[in-house]
Design brief:
Layout lengths: L2 E4 L2 E4 L16 H8 L7 H17 L5 H7 L4 H7 L4 H9 L9
């Protein structure tokens, strides 16, 4: 299994870079993961989505799809694509330290 190091802490990741154990994630890691994915700064709207993703994962055992994210996070689908250009659900999940949502390629 590959590893990644964020804020001086080594964590196990899968082949796509998603954390194997979401409990190893910390808020301090998110900006580093985001920068590695081409997002220079996490705004309040980014954090709104990241926190929503983590909450949904903790409640349901999986992250929401883009459609669900757009309907229930308080951030429109259009804005989600502006915040997370490489695919909102997948990229937000990665930054949030949770597994890739079902249906993401």
């Amino acid at each position: 299994m590959p590893n990644a190091t964020y804020v001086g802490r080594t964590v196990s990741v899968n082949d796509e870079g998603f954390l194997i154990n979401p409990d190893q994630w910390s808020r301090e890691m998110a900006p580093e993961i985001a920068r590695a994915e081409g997002i220079d700064e996490l705004t309040q709207q980014h954090w709104r989505v990241i926190d929503f993703m983590r909450h949904e994962y903790q409640e349901k055992g999986s992250g929401p799809t883009v459609r669900v994210l757009g309907k229930t996070s308080g951030v429109s689908i259009k804005e989600l694509y502006q915040l997370f250009p490489k695919g909102p659900a997948k990229l937000a999940a990665k930054i949030a330290g949770i597994p890739k949502p079902r249906g993401c390629i």
